[in-house]
Amino acid sequence: MIRNYNPRAFTLIELLLVVVIIAIMSGIVLSAVNVRGLKQKARDAQRIADLKRVQTALELYFADNRVYPTSGGENFVDGTCDSVCTALEGGYISRLPSDPLETNPPYRYISLDGNSYELITKMEIYTTAEDSPCTGSYSGYSGNTPNLCYGVINPL
Length: 156
Known about the structure:
This protein is of the alpha+beta class. Helix content is about 40%, strand content about 15%.
């Protein structure tokens, strides 16, 4: 007599039940992780690093010329070459950075007199912008979101 039933093996129903439970648990974990928030934090960290790179280039430029490049108002640091790009690229920075999110406004550079400057960007997360809020000649950013403004100012 051939016997096909083995009480120590798993049935198909038991295996499907385990797979469903694992899928439900992974869905709960993924919703708790907040993938969107992690991406926003990563882009904000990139913005801060970009401003620090431009700040370093500006300080090197100042060390050689004893003046910061003047913008004559508000310049956009968006990878296109303008007076700031012409002054910095080549010897002080290889390429001016642009915002990691294309729908976000570009970085801004303000230096009216060549003795001080302000680099400004718009953050996606309020807590990131709290570390260095805009305070100088441009304290708002766009419309009703001044609390998302992040600035690097020299001299402090």
